[in-house]
Design brief:
Elements (H helix, E strand, L loop, with lengths): L1 E2 L3 H13 L6 E2 L2 H10 L4 E5 L7 H10 L7 E6 L4 H10 L3 E4 L4 H9 L8
Parallel strand pairs: 1-2, 1-3, 3-4, 4-5
Helix pairs in contact: 2-3
Length: 120
Amino acid sequence: MIVDDNVDAAESLAELLGAQGHRVEVHAHPREAIARAREAPPEVFILDIGLPEMDGYELARRLRADPATGGALFIALTGYGQAHDRILSKSSGFEHHFVKPMDTDRLAQVLAGVRGRSRP
């Protein structure tokens, strides 16, 4: 699941991931994403940090705390790339921190190990 208020960028990334065989949902609003994730928990969350309503850090914390979604892989996708941003990502539950523009080859490597990932 991609959550990014820049819908064009999110849909472009979803198309790229879809071409690599991934099923992807795109949501622009955090609350909508939470509701959908509870209905059909994804294996991966790619979350923008600068979201409306709540930032990506808070969204990650909420999803990580939910037993239905907490075992997913969390990837931050953001324009914020300073050391303190990466520390905040990690403390919020993200396992990876990608700075825009995203290195799609690196993302493909990260996603290659996702299938069958254990969940709590």
